[in-house]
Amino acid sequence: MISASINPIDVKTRAGLGFVAASKRPNEFLSLGYDVYGEIVDASEEAKSLIGKCAFGMTGFPNSPGTYADVLDVPLEDVFILPEVKQDVALGGLSLAGLTAMQALQRLPTHLPLYVSAPTGGVGHLAIQIAQLLGYNLIAVTRRPDNLMLSELSARLGFDVISFDTFFAEQRQGSLLDLVGGEVAKQCLDTLQEGSIIVTVPTITKDMICSHAQSRNIEAEGVVVQKNASQLACLYDWYAKGG
Question: Which end of the chain has fewer CB atoms < 10 Å from its terminal CB, N or C?
Answer without folding.
Answer: C
